[in-house]
Amino acid sequence: MSNEISIFDTGGGSDKPAHIAKYVDKSNDAAGMVTGFASLPKMSIKGKQFRYMKEDKEYVYPMGTALKCIILATDPQQGVSKAWYNSNYSENAEFTLPDCFSSNGIKPDAQSTMIPKGVRSCAECPKNAFGSGTDASGTPTKGKACADVKNLFIVEAHQMDESPMVLRVPATSLKALSGYGRLLAKQKCPPQIVVTKVTFTDATHPQLEFAPVSFLSEADADNMIAKSESDDVQLALPSRNIMELAPAEQEIDVRQLPLHEQEAPPVPEEEAPPVPQPKKVMTQKANGLGYDAFIAQKWTDKQLIENGYMEIV
């Protein structure tokens, strides 16, 4: 099991066990926390208590008890997922599928049942604009009607051999998760090899905090890395297993509108034609979404190329 030791005390990571160095190349998984819905069991935060269902029985952590877990994966890897409920939604409510949601934060998933009319990308959706939100009483707020969320795929530290669960991190906790991800990334430490303690703040609504507790033994770390790469986890990651939307009927599909390109000036006969400059071209994997839609979700050119959404030609 885990070695109960203090970690990251020196700020430079010099106190990390020698075997931790072999996992440095997995530390990018921690960066994925910086700021869909799987078929796996859900770890709920209803009533500021951790709880989950297993074999039709509900297990509830005592009030004030922290969740100690290993984070196997985050989804989406870049950015956030989005979830919109047509009715007022409470973080204390039981989990239900949103009326419209996007696993990758770029476009609605095909399983969405109430996509705002004419909307084909999150960037253009009025529900994703600041000022569109309302509170529990229906009073308008400065926030967004469509909430940003992040899914953590976890196993409890005291039973790492069990099946993974999904902890849905709400918008109010994304800043804390982002800070934790930066800490792990700075220490070149992937989340799969440390025990993470998740607790509630003193806020009225469920708001989470994250902290490292201990390193795993080498054997346990190897097992958690393997579990994170298993089909149980990879096939459950919503943003990487998205059902595509069918083409809209009798509506203008904004994804198919060509980008305006300024015509090149005529080339004088006595001058040689200019050397063609590299162009950014979205691939078929982008499903017709334009470059600006990805940039609006904080994607970089490097990430677009590495994930196969764009090519330089």
Kindly list the characteristics that best describe this protein:
eleven-stranded mixed β-sheet, 2 domains, two-stranded antiparallel sheet, 313 residues, globular, alpha+beta, 6 helices
Instruction: Determine the N-to-C terminus distance.
Output: 50 Å
Mean pLDDT rating? 79
Strand content: 15-25%
The poorly predicted ranges are: 34-38, 244-263
Structurally, the number of domains stands at 2
The tally of strands reads 13
Q: SSE string, helix = H, strand = E?
A: EHEEEEEEEEHEEHHEHHE
Number of helices: 6
Structural class estimated from helices and strands: alpha+beta
Structure, described:
About 8% of the residues have low confidence. Strands 1, 2, 3, 4, 5, 6, 7, 8, 9, 10 and 11 form an 11-stranded mixed beta sheet that branches. The chain has a two-stranded antiparallel ribbon with strand order 12-13. It contains 6 helices and 13 strands. The chain is of the alpha+beta class and 313 residues long.
Write the layout of secondary structure elements.
Blueprint: E1 2-3, H1 28-31, E2 42-44, E3 51-54, E4 57-60, E5 67-75, E6 81-84, E7 100-102, E8 147-156, E9 165-169, H2 174-186, E10 194-200, E11 208-216, H3 218-228, H4 231-234, E12 280-282, H5 291-296, H6 301-306, E13 310-312
Parallel strand pairs: 2-9
Antiparallel strand pairs: 1-11, 2-3, 3-4, 5-8, 5-10, 6-7, 6-8, 8-9, 10-11, 12-13
Summarize the structure.
With 313 residues, the chain is of the alpha+beta class. Helices cover 14% and strands 21% of the residues. The radius of gyration is 22 Å and the shape is globular.
